[in-house]
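Problem statement: downstream parser choked on a complex file, so we are re-checking the raw output for the adenosine-5'-diphosphate run. The parser issue turned out to be on our end (a line-ending mismatch), but while we're here, posting the original submission so the record is complete.
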Amino acid sequence: MPETPETPSLEERILVLAPTGRDATLTCQLLSQEGLCCLPCLDEGTLFLEIEQGAAVAILAEEALLPWTLHTLVEVLGRQGPWSDLPLIVFTRGGGNSESILAALGPVSNATILERPVRVSTLLSSVKAALRARRRQYQVRDLLDRQAEADRRKDEFLAMLGHELRNPLAAIRNSLWVLDEVGSKTEQDVRQREVIARQAKHLVRMVDDLLDVSRVTLGKIILKRQTVDLEEVASRCLNELDLAALAASHGLDLRVETEPVTVDGDPVRLEQVICNLVQNAIKYTPRGGSLTLSVHSEDSEGVVRVRDTGVGISLEMLPHIFEPFTQVESSRSRSEGGLGLGLPLVRGLVELHGGRVEARSDGPGRGSEFIVRFPLRQKPARRSTGRSGTWPIAAASPAATPGNGHGQNGGLSILIVEDNMDGRESLRDLLEIWGHQVELAENGLQGVERALAGQPDVALIDIGLPGLDGNEVARRIRAVFGTDHMSLIAMTGYGQPEDRRRALQAGFDSYLVKPVDPAHLARLLAELRAVTG
Ligand code: ADP
């Protein structure tokens, strides 16, 4: 095969703008003899276009540098990335001219002035030095591009990982509920189930954090704002995660000091912030220590403080504590696990609310304090202000107890379309215990066939199915039966608002994010049962 001459890269080109005389021609001749790639530009417009395509150096004659050209040149160079500092070589008439041109180039600081007559060796050495510097700049650009790409892939991976982890969690949670429904025979059974339930809950939170951190990073979280009382949020967080019991089981004394503080925020996200901080305080405080959660208003801010007498944070670590994946090496933190995502999430959510968070510690072994400040919506008014003291922590929400009687009024025919075998079968067991009749399909096509043939009251359909995805399954069922024949419920690991919108458009009536809370599912089915009679 004949060898094609290698086309020099755009980034190796030396652009020359010398509109009068023979400067451009002579310079290009000289540089070409040295094996360099030179492109004379007829006017400044061409020069700017070529710079945007890629260039190693621009050589300009003083005569070309009119005020408009200088102004536009500065703009064009400013549009290149932060890695770029295009070397310019300017031929001047010498004398005072050189200084005034240097001053005019001001912001374009990477300029070399060569006074005419220019010696060949001076020109060649200046061009070669500029070329070398420019190649380095392009290397930096490539490196930054690669890093940005790796970062993007990491974010995608985290989002995917979080999503994939939801499937096994759903199966574990379903099976646990089946065991609860069947009833426990021995005390040991109950204990083991409680361990699985606690650990599954822990896993669910880690997966949620993982997904939320990538969404905060990608700017995809939208707050559902309303007037919120931080005292109530704190109370909910303590009750829902049963943090008092958790603290007690770690041998810790948990004190709560709050007053009503009204802010403008998303209650779910605010709860996440407070829960994360309290859970950390529990995690990083050895037995016998104490924690304080306080909510107060100070000046024009709602302030949440979580203080502990635990392992503390070193001065070097303090500035990094809110960066993703940061973990202080300590046997306790490792033994308790954690992804180093809680605090970045806290900071991201607090900042979305227009607030700020800081960490304080007098050093290792001397405890920590996390202080979150939110803009206040209004002065506390609900109760007398300034009340402060401990308030009762409501009794723990009852854990699922054996035979808890959900779905007592079963009687629906339900099709489950789910490719994950454990998820499918554990859900079938649960629904059958609740008294429903269940049929299974393990992929989208089978799902459509069984829905059309069996015409169940309800189809519970996973979205991420092989071949035909859940949305397509819903569309095909709806195309045959219309909207009021069968209830379609999506069960999916994809929890983003766009995913929900797509599913509802495809014909689903409801949308549940995995791992589905069985109590929620039971309520939904009871409502459908009431409607179908
Ligand atoms: P993790 O999942 O590791 O707990 P976080 O982002 O919540 O991740 O916390 C990051 C690191 O900050 C932890 O690994 C721990 O070293 C440190 N840290 C967080 N909270 C506390 C605390 N209350 N006391 C001491 N160290 C803490």
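For whoever reads this later: DSSP finds 16 helices and 17 strands in the chain.
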